[in-house]
């Protein structure tokens, strides 16, 4: 079977042959576009460290959602910037909170787009942490009730999937219980299960104004050096009733995606996060890389590692490239 009998180059001779033997296919169906919603009307303001991403008011967001659905992208995930922040993140679970309004508006405008919501407190708390703070510490169990209320308020507004990103222990079962009690037993939970304490979230914290005001998130998000622990986290979330588990960030954690896929199968989501996006954009702008090719190679590698769905700020761009549209 060795050279010259087997010549691997035979099947690489032209694009038609390469297409025939290609193993991994990135598809429109794999993509989720994250969006940032703010109060006000007619707001469409670009986020400086995330070119091509915008702060959108509810009216603008509804238009954007319509366009995304028309492109064939199956879903969006919403992040909200509240009017005011307080110690317990009240707007996160307010009936007329910015995300709740956005969900209703999108659902009224487009019928065939999945609306996912990020369930967390950090954008809504004055201290910027993902949980309740007592004596300088982020408290796990008192946070669970607020997360459950947040998820329930999203479901009541019409969210199709709720996605807790806080990394408190036990949040998936707390949310599952709260949803089931109110008749939302069919609302899936996509859990940010292996979420690392990553510097790659930098631009997002500017975009969502959600940087912690003291300390960091290392007491609840995972140590980037750990891999076995990711399997325990994913296993726990699945036991608690998570329908989709997520690994985040994506590209620096392809090995984690791979291990989770081997151990548990799917569906697995991977979050190609703000810092990954910003690096791509920056190098592209400087002319140091071919941005489009690097983007598609990156997303393909995430898929090849085992991700079934990919949350990426470049979803629209990737969709255009997949469809060969200008
Ligand atoms: C909220 C949340 C964060 C991200 C998603 N949900 C920030 C964080 O945990 O610090 C990051 C997304 C990104 O960087 O693109 N907890």
From TrEMBL:
GO terms classed as biological process: protoporphyrinogen IX biosynthetic process
The UniProt record lists the keyword Zinc: yes
Record: active site: 195 (schiff-base intermediate with substrate), 248 (schiff-base intermediate with substrate)
Reaction equation(s) it catalyzes: 2 5-aminolevulinate = porphobilinogen + 2 H2O + H(+)
Entry keywords, A to Z: Heme biosynthesis, Lyase, Magnesium, Metal-binding, Porphyrin biosynthesis, Zinc
Recorded superkingdom: Bacteria
PROSITE patterns with a match to the protein in the record: D_ALA_DEHYDRATASE
Binding sites annotated in the UniProt record for 5-aminolevulinate 1: 205, 217
Positions with a binding annotation for 5-aminolevulinate 2: 274, 313
Amino acids binding Zn(2+): 120, 122, 130
Enzyme class: lyase
Pathway: Porphyrin-containing compound metabolism; protoporphyrin-IX biosynthesis; coproporphyrinogen-III from 5-aminolevulinate: step 1/4
Residues that bind Mg(2+): 233
Pfam family of the protein (one): ALAD
E.C. designation(s): 4.2.1.24
GO cellular component: cytosol
Coiled coil: none
Alphabetized Gene3D superfamilies for the sequence: Aldolase class I
Family of the protein in this entry: Belongs to the ALAD family.
Subunit: Homooctamer.
Identification of the protein by name: Delta-aminolevulinic acid dehydratase
Source species taxonomy: Bacteria, Candidatus Methylomirabilota, Candidatus Methylomirabilia, Candidatus Methylomirabilales, Candidatus Methylomirabilaceae
